[in-house]
Amino acid sequence: MHAPAALHLDETHAMDAGLALVTSALGAAGLLLVLADADIAGAVAGAVGVLTGLWGQLVSRTRPERFLDVVGIGAAAVAFALGMAYGGINFSG
């Protein structure tokens, strides 16, 4: 019988977990910035969050890290899209 996955202390990877947490924090910060009408800052936080999350997906070794990366990438992508739509791109001259 195997122990639950949360008890496998030898499977913790500090860099991978750090990237996942940074990605989620950037996604949440980007969404909050867009809601606070700081659209360019939200778009930048979202873009950096997407790039960080994609790198985290590439190097992550466990399922919880990848799950947190995907949630963070989704939030960061939405923040980037909303930030660019509401203040980052202006075609009206």
Structural class: mainly alpha
How many separate helices?
3
Strand-residue fraction? Answer: under 5%
Number of strands: 0
SSE pattern = HHH
The proportion of residues forming helix, as a percent range, comes to over 70%
Shape: elongated
Uncertain runs are: none
Structural overview:
There is one protein chain. With 93 residues, this protein is mostly helical. The chain has one domain. 74% of the residues lie in helices and 0% in strands. It has 3 helices and no strands. The radius of gyration is 16 Å and the shape is elongated. The mean pLDDT is 86.
List keywords for this structure.
mainly alpha
Give the helices and strands, then pairings.
Elements: H1 14-35, H2 39-59, H3 63-88
